[in-house]
Design goal:
The structure is a homodimer.
Chain A (H helix, E strand, L loop, with lengths): L2 H17 L3 E4 L16 H6 L7 E4 L4 E5 L4 H8 L5 E4 L8 H8 L5 E4 L6 H10 L6 E3 L21 E2 L9 H14 L4 E4 L2 H8 L1 E2 L11 E6 L3 E5 L6 H9 L2 E5 L3 H7 L6 E3 L6 H10 L2 E3 L3 H7 L3 H28 L7 H13 L4 E4 L4 E4 L23 E6 L1 E3 L2 E2 L2 E6 L5 H18 L2 E3 L4 H13 L10 E3 L8 E6 L17 E4 L2 E4 L3 E4 L2 E11 L2 E8 L17 H18 L5 H10 L7
Parallel strand pairs in A: 1-5, 3-4, 5-6, 8-13, 11-12, 13-14
Antiparallel strand pairs in A: 1-2, 2-3, 7-9, 8-10, 10-11, 15-18, 16-17, 17-20, 18-19, 21-28, 22-23, 24-27, 25-26, 27-28
Helix pairs in contact in A: 5-10, 9-10, 12-13, 14-15
Keywords (chains A, B): Aminopeptidase, Hydrolase, Metal-binding, Protease
Family (chains A, B): Belongs to the peptidase M24B family.
Organism (chains A, B): Candidatus Eisenbergiella pullistercoris
Chain lengths: 601, 601
């Protein structure tokens, strides 16, 4: 029996009773629907004991249930044992969604409670729709778990920094003008921006409130003439004050955003997005007046990197790639000679990155998976339990850094000793897929759904799939995952797709994951560029930003066409050209060999 | 001055005055929004003198305008000269759409007239939306052009035939039951079917009212227990009467569909599709009661060919391909030795087809374009003006037949003599694209947008595009173009896409069209099939139905990878294996040479 969790749920039920709430829902989100959340926001983990990144707890008097996805079924079962909380395996046959569950169980006239600040508008709407006609009251203005969580961490609060305009390519003033133009086109007088990375981009500022994501908890409310930035006082520096005053930005306390919106006298039609604006905020907006629901205009602007950003990225990626090359060299030289584990290998790489000029942070915790561990896409090595590396098989390392000048993301699967013929075939197929997408030529108007098959075809030819997209956008000194661009193949009725625009960056990361055996991923970051324009349209291609060898120890040219071998040789020649100057002599000699051209047939 | 047309427009204006109509619109469509229309429906051509396949005439007291697309600008200008009708070049900058034009010009309280039977519901809705708030009356119940067109052809009316159930794979009774099930799932009590090929498929009948399309003008109204078929009395044979009675189908006069719907007493929620149901019919439905707008459930059922259909198609395609092979042999042997023109070449091929067992008709008028004429995708050779073939360059022939057992569609570009190196490169690129799509392996869930780039990449690699889709569905003893499947790449927000299902047939026809120089297209028909199913999903591949050599006289292996050469050799080996038995000795010897394997590097 897990008494601690049972007591926490009981305490929550007490608060529910006091508040007149029959069902209470706790999702995993912050106030901005960020991909990663700070400890402050881990209420669902506190209440349920389940530590996975995705899960929603629903509590009523008779029952408590936790919904999570297939990645976490085994872990959740273990962590929920003895808590009395029932596991709902999402997408399994016969398992109701939360909406279906509430619809089936809630009675006419009952009250559903949740903290409306951590439920995004789209989810709130789905709940409204599912429960329509049952006269259900929504109590969304209180966090009922807070009272019982006596040692809850404080809201993260770190000083904000202002970026040097020279590395931004556009001033905050110019960006504000661009967004105001888009507001006008959308028929809006004002724009409420809740998405943290969009907001950082807009004002050329950065924060440190979310691990690996240089964002500050904040909201912006932009009108034709004014811009209000809601931010904790502890984050406001003199630098930020000066910057804000230069661009007509008024600083207001973070906690005042709801009351500001409710009390604002001006009649304004307000643009906001339903995905990242909390239910609490959108309800406040809609009680006041007219709204326009649309995408944040900042999203597309941020995604298209300008030439200043791109030139800094090129430089940063070169240095970051050199760290990866040094790491591979070190690893191959030392494996089997000294004790190296999945964790210490990652630490060595992290250490190399930290020595690079302008290093700020990792862009995500380094993934380091040896042998069959690499087949788990969300594997996190722990110091106590992780594998020791031996001179055989492969280590998959997916890593990246935050630098003044860019955010990186790169994966290499490194051969540490003998590998099977099957592994060589798989490794070669992954490399061929990555190179085929790299060398794509396409007309303007393509989206990721048109291109995905170029990377995936070598795997599909072998009746193998990697169950994820091929690529995602990458921020500029911002979140390692950003949209709207992406390389994915599945069709979803009614889903919007982002046309690939010149200046958009995207990862290219096909893989093969064989459970219990091995995992392979090779990942570069690329930038879309305009090529020839003629009567048939604007042709486009990708420039590569990442320069690290693809391990020839697992390449079998028997599985490659001459053109594919030429692509690989061409890539490797450039790796040597760009990275050799950043290495010492011994490393350089190794890189020369690691990037040697393969014979063409 | 074109007095004849001016008089016709004047007569229309008289009718408009009598009917109190201020603006009158004449589109190019039949009552079923068919792709091809009979002479009876060419009212717009009669009134304007413009003979192109796409165009809409709008007439008011002061002005008459004709809207058409880029394919027809030059032709329309010529044909409209002296008529007083103004040409509106669709999609040209600054040119209003018809909706914009009407919105700009119609005055509060005026009346817009059109024959509501030839305007589909989707277009009617767009007009309603554009003119909302101007208090415009819609007069859609009369064909105001009819009175003046004294020598108008009669409605086409040909006896209907009933297909032998042995070649259908499913009886009409089974299909009716399947559709009733879909009606139920859509929450409908009844289903109004206006789309002619869907209707023919549903009842296992065929007509002859539209050139090359074996369909009969008709409507069906299906309820849980009844099925009403509206069809001209002149089309009803004893065979049809027996068939109808066997499956509980009541035959009613074609012209009574509107009054039937208006007068029907039963309260029914009626399913219909907005694309193929006329505005007149959908208004009648909506005045009566509840409707459900959705796709015709017949569309997807018809698109997925069953095994009986597929086995007949295989046989028919083999014979049809043999005719194409005989034609290529004859052409190569005789060009330069006797007089052959674009038109007489097509006639020779049409003649070969007509000798095949079960031949019914062509599936579309044979396209035969020599040299630069092949670069015009909609080229129609005329006996008086067409080119004579010489022993040089290439002839593009796109053709197909209707047979008891299938509908075919095949294109080959045939080398008649020396061709340039550029042409060889282009020809090889087209062949490589066609073969790459043929050999695609993909997971269930893919739509044509995922696959198109496989065919198009060799062209895009050369900064060339073909400005059309790569493939379309093909009917079974039905229209040569059918949906919902297709291989296209462009994204349209909100547009539905058809997942490729096992049993769907689709053309594979990449090309290169260089204006004033040459045109190349190579087209096979393929069928999607299920391959391996494993933990990653259901893998799929294509089977080919078309067997005719790809002209090695224009293939340059220097532009091919070994794998691509192997694909070509493999295809050619199968062409010989399948077609040789259907040829005479001389033809067979030629085919052996025409399908010889190329060395692998």
């Amino acid at each position: 029996m897990n008494q601690r969790i049972q007591e926490r749920v009981a305490a929550l039920r007490e608060e529910m009773k006091k508040a007149g709430v029959d069902y209470y829902m706790v999702p995993t989100a912050d106030f901005h629907n960020s991909e990663y959340v700070d400890r402050y926001f881990k209420m669902r983990e506190y209440l349920s004991g389940f530590t996975g990144s995705n899960g929603t707890l629903v509590v009523c008097e008779e029952e408590a249930g936790l919904w999570t996805d297939g990645r976490y079924f085994i872990q959740a079962e273990k962590e929920l044992a003895g808590t009395g909380i029932r596991l709902f395996r999402m997408l399994d046959e016969g398992v109701p969604t939360i909406q279906e569950y509430l619809k089936q169980n809630m009675k006419e006239g009952q009250t559903l409670g949740f903290d409306g600040r951590v439920v995004d508008t789209a989810l709130g709407r789905r709940l409204e729709k599912a429960l329509a006609g049952k006269n259900i009251r929504f109590a969304y203005d209180r966090d009922l778990g807070d009272a019982g969580w006596t040692d809850r961490p404080a809201l993260p609060c770190h000083p904000v920094t202002v970026l040097d305009e020279a590395i931004c390519g556009k001033t905050a003033g110019e960006k504000l003008a661009d967004v105001r133009q888009k507001m006008k086109e959308a028929g809006a007088d004002a724009f409420l921006l809740s998405k943290l990375d969009d907001l950082m981009w807009l004002l050329n500022i950065r924060g440190a409130d979310v691990e690996c994501n240089p964002v500050a908890l904040s909201y912006a409310y932009l009108t034709k003439d004014d811009c209000f930035l809601f931010i904790q006082e502890g984050e406001v520096t003199q630098e930020l004050k000066d910057h804000a005053s230069k661009y007509g930005v008024t600083l207001l306390p973070y906690g005042q955003v709801v009351s500001f919106l409710k009390e604002r006298k001006e009649k304004e039609t307000v643009l906001f997005d339903v995905a990242n604006t909390s239910y609490a905020l959108s309800c406040a907006l809609q009680e006041k007046g007219e709204t326009v629901e649309g995408k944040n205009p900042t999203e597309l602007m941020k995604a298209i990197k300008n030439e200043v950003e791109l030139s800094h990225m090129e430089e940063v990626y070169r240095k970051d790639s050199a760290a990866v090359c040094k790491f591979i060299y070190w690893l191959k030289k030392n494996v089997g000679k000294r004790k190296i584990t999945e964790v210490t290998a990652a630490q060595y790489l992290d250490g190399l990155r930290s020595q690079i000029d302008g290093y700020l942070d990792l862009s995500f915790p380094t993934i380091s998976g040896y042998q069959e561990n690499a087949a788990m896409m969300h594997y996190e090595a722990e110091p106590e339990t992780c594998k020791e590396l031996r001179p055989e098989g492969m280590l998959l390392v997916d890593s990246g850094g935050q630098y003044v000048g860019g955010t990186t993301d790169v994966t290499r699967t490194i051969v540490l000793g003998p590998v099977s013929d099957e592994i060589k075939e798989h490794f070669t197929a992954v490399a061929v897929g990555m190179l085929a997408l790299t060398n794509a030529r396409f007309l303007y108007g393509c989206t990721g759904r048109n291109l995905d098959i170029l990377a995936r075809q070598p795997m599909w030819n072998r009746n193998i799939d990697y169950k994820c997209g091929t690529g995602h956008g990458v921020g500029y000194i911002l979140n390692v995952h950003e949209g709207p661009q992406g390389i994915r193949w599945r069709f979803t009725e009614g889903q919007s797709e982002a046309v690939i625009e010149a200046g958009m960056d995207v990862t290219n990361e096909p893989g093969i994951y064989i459970e219990g055996s091995h995992g392979i991923r090779t990942e570069n970051v690329m930038v879309a560029r305009n090529g020839v324009r003629n009567g048939d349209g604007q042709f486009m291609y990708f420039d590569t930003l990442t320069w690290a060898p693809i391990d020839l120890d697992a390449i079998d040219p028997a599985y490659m066409e001459p053109r594919e071998i030429a692509w690989l040789n061409d890539y490797h020649a450039k790796v040597y050209e760009k990275i050799a100057p950043l290495l010492d002599e011994e490393e350089r000699a190794w890189l020369k060999e690691a990037t040697r051209p393969l014979p063409l047939s």
